[in-house]
UniProtKB/TrEMBL annotation:
GO terms for molecular function: endo-1,4-beta-xylanase activity; polysaccharide binding. It catalyses: Endohydrolysis of (1->4)-beta-D-xylosidic linkages in xylans. Belongs to the glycosyl hydrolase 10 (cellulase F) family. One of its GO terms (biological process) is xylan catabolic process. It comes from the Bacteria. Residues 364-458 form the CBM2 domain. Residues 349-367 have a biased composition (Pro residues). The lineage of its organism: Bacteria, Bacillati, Actinomycetota, Actinomycetes, Micromonosporales. The keyword Hydrolase applies. PANTHER family: BETA-XYLANASE, GLYCOSYL HYDROLASE. This is Beta-xylanase.
Length: 458
């Protein structure tokens, strides 16, 4: 349905014809019982915007002490819509003395990100490495209890602010054994991983809980299979787990494997999201970056990519120049390849929606001032969908959109969002990116269309 006010006011533009074609295509596909919907019409100009139009995030690992570097924050704020604190949420950073928690640096990153509409991945609650001295010296039930208390306290502090947690990091051994890594945590008993996940779920029921590891990219490797078996076992027994993080640090000794897409899709088939959590590639070959992005786009439950740093000089492996920006902040060929892949990526296969998608613009309620906001449906996946809002009548605008709980907005583009305390009402302000903004909604089982509540010119 198109309301008369909208029909009268909208010019016969190319965009309108494109919209009409897209809507017609939706109708044809729906009539044919197809489940693949058209991709969003526009091409983003930044990594975050382009990924969001694909229903995904594009993030970076961020260091708190670089937030005062304007060259750094200029790229961060322009390009990325997700952030992972590189070190500031680790055990040694957040609980340097037992029972004394320090969140200052992590809070700075979270605040920087959320005030700009970026989501936050939490990294990491339980790990054999980066333990503070007091924890390194513990064992047995005292260590188990301390670990669970740490998980509980940290996840509670960030409840509602972190969309996904790397609950447990790097718990499997390298090599061909497929065994757990020996560590003080492992020696508290084989069930330490599931105990950590249960504690994290209890502390923040809204966060996605991930297992995160490296050298788990090649489907044939014993370590990959071991993590796969852990996730399958957790799903079968009802241990809370929502996602698997593949760190994906690629280099000559641990190259990008040709079966990477198989690995992503195999994990996804277990009923978990897959996230590429720490991507960097030695010498940043454009082809390999492109392959990684296309592999993620080909798997509906590959929900986002994080690069482990912004400029080469920010990398933990700076000598390998493995990132998307030079040390002086210039875009590298790998950047162009990633952006092009995000913009040209194929529509991912979807699982059939439980209800048919709705199409056509909504009618905004009256009283929104002298601008009009029209929402139309974008791409839809098995667990989430995009919406685009076109504003007419103002170049500086504020649009209020509401989603229906338990829906959650997971990504936005072309605007500066803020949320009310419920997290269900989003206020989007123009940020100079034009008059069309978009967002991704995690359905969480509810496919109700988001509602435009008001449009105010400013
Ligand atoms: O900030 C201090 C500085 O004050 C001090 O002078 C200096 C002396 O060593 O250390 C500095 O801290 C270092 C910190 O990075 C910040 O640069 C630590 O020593 C160093 O151990 C730490 O390394 C981090 C590493 O994890 C260990 O936690 C890297 O930045 C970080 O990129 C890396 O990230 C890991 C992921 O968490 C898990 N996956 C692998 C990935 C790469 O190793």
């Amino acid at each position: 349905m198109i309301d008369s006010c909208q029909r009268n006011n909208r010019p016969r533009s190319t965009a309108r014809r494109r919209t009409a074609l897209a809507l017609a295509a939706v109708g044809l596909l729906a009539a044919a019982g197809a489940v693949v919907l058209p991709v969003a019409a526009s091409a983003g100009t930044t990594l975050g915007a382009s990924a969001a139009e694909r229903g995904r995030y594009f993030g970076a690992a961020v260091a708190a002490n670089k937030l005062s570097d304007s060259a750094y924050t200029t790229i961060l704020n322009r390009e990325f819509n997700s952030v992972t604190p590189e070190n500031e949420m680790k055990i040694d950073a957040t609980e340097p003395q037992q029972g004394q928690f320090t969140f200052t640096n992590a809070d700075r990153i979270v605040s920087h990100a959320r005030s700009r509409g970026m989501s936050v991945r939490g990294h990491t609650l339980a790990w054999h490495s980066q333990q503070p001295g007091w924890m390194q010296n513990m064992s047995g039930s005292a260590l188990r209890q301390a670990m669970l208390n740490h998980v509980t306290q940290v996840a509670t502090h960030f409840r509602g602010q972190v969309v996904a947690w790397d609950v447990v990091n790097e718990a499997f051994a390298d090599g061909g054994s497929g065994a757990r890594r020996d560590s003080n945590l492992q020696r508290t008993g084989n069930d330490w991983i599931e105990a950590a996940f249960r504690a994290a779920r209890a502390a923040d029921p809204g966060a996605k809980l991930c297992y995160n590891d490296y050298n788990t990219d090649d489907w044939t490797h014993a370590k990959t299979q071991a993590v796969y078996n852990l996730v399958r076992d957790f799903k079968q027994r009802g241990v809370p787990i929502d996602c698997v993080g593949l760190q994906s640090h690629f280099n000559s000794g641990s190259p990008y494997p040709g079966n990477y897409r198989t690995t992503l899709s195999s994990f996804a088939a277990l009923g978990v999201d897959v996230q590429i959590t720490e991507l960097d590639i030695q010498n940043a070959p454009a082809d390999t970056y492109r392959n990684v992005v296309n592999d993620c786009l080909a798997v509906a439950r590959c929900t986002g990519i994080t690069v482990w740093g912004i400029r080469d000089s920010d990398s933990w492996r700076a000598e390998q120049n493995p990132l998307l920006f030079t040390s002086s902040g210039a875009k590298k060929p790998a950047y162009d390849a990633v952006l092009a892949a995000l913009n040209g990526g194929t529509t991912p296969p979807t699982t059939p929606p439980t209800t048919p998608p709705t199409t056509g613009p909504t009618t905004p309620p009256p009283g929104g001032g002298s601008c009009t906001a029209t929402l139309r449906d974008g791409t839809r996946w098995g667990d989430r969908f995009n919406s685009e809002v076109t504003v007419t009548g103002a170049s500086n605008w504020t649009v209020v959109v509401a989603v229906t709980p338990p829906q959650k907005v997971s990504a936005t583009w072309n605007g500066t969002p803020s949320w009310d305390s419920s997290g269900n009402v989003m206020t989007m302000r123009s940020n100079g990116s034009g008059n069309v903004f978009g967002f991704t909604t995690m359905a969480n089982g509810n496919w109700t269309r988001p509602q435009v509540r008001s449009c105010t010119a400013s």
